[in-house]
Design a protein that fits this description.
single chain, alpha+beta, Nucleoside Triphosphate Pyrophosphohydrolase, 5-stranded mixed β-sheet, 4 helices, 8 strands, 27% strand
């Protein structure tokens, strides 16, 4: 999971998405040599994680300080085209949990507009991965969150999460039934 600036790595990680959405990601990568940098417009690559507990029943959400919404851990690639590395780095930083284990194949893609304070509105081309926390995980938030909470995967819609996160939870729940332990 070494970091790299080589966008061919990100492109290869997206190969399983042989559809229009995957094509949009490939178009961004092919048309923007700076696609892994947060300054890239109309948008840029991000990596995020569906962090599940050791039993695979709950996911860890953070109340995002900038956006005021419950989200999965994740963030900017900041020049790293290895999106597995990005997702694991962000999950570790934002949850404070060491020894997270990541499934290296992305689960889900989601392109969404963000409009952070003091910045122009732009797109996040988010690549989402499944991450399992160890049994003794004690989450510790950082400056990017106002709180952390374990939420049952099936309760994400009731918890007020956006459609993309609810969909990620559903896909992650199904993947946990078939994937080897991560």
């Amino acid at each position: 999971m070494a970091s790299t600036e080589d966008l061919a790595v990100a492109r290869a990680q997206l190969a399983i998405f042989d559809d229009g959405l995957g094509d949009r990601y490939r178009s961004l990568i092919d048309g923007h040599p700076d696609a892994s940098l947060r300054t890239c417009r109309p948008g840029h690559l991000t990596g995020s994680a569906l962090v599940v507990d050791s039993a695979g029943a709950r996911t860890l959400l953070m109340l995002h300080a900038k956006f005021g919404r419950w989200l999965q851990p994740g963030g900017h690639a900041d020049g790293d085209a290895n999106l597995v590395s990005v997702a694991l780095r962000e999950a570790t930083e934002e949850t404070g949990i060491d020894a997270l284990r990541i499934w290296p194949q992305p689960l889900h893609l989601d392109i969404h507009e963000v409009d952070p304070p003091g910045e122009d509105a732009h797109l996040h081309y988010d690549v989402r991965f499944l991450v399992r926390a160890p049994a003794d995980a004690q989450p510790q938030g950082n400056h990017e969150s106002r709180g952390l909470r374990w939420v049952p995967l099936q309760d994400l819609a009731d918890f007020g999460c956006d459609y993309g996160l609810v969909q990620l939870g559903e896909i992650g729940s199904e993947a946990l039934k078939t994937l080897p332990q991560v």
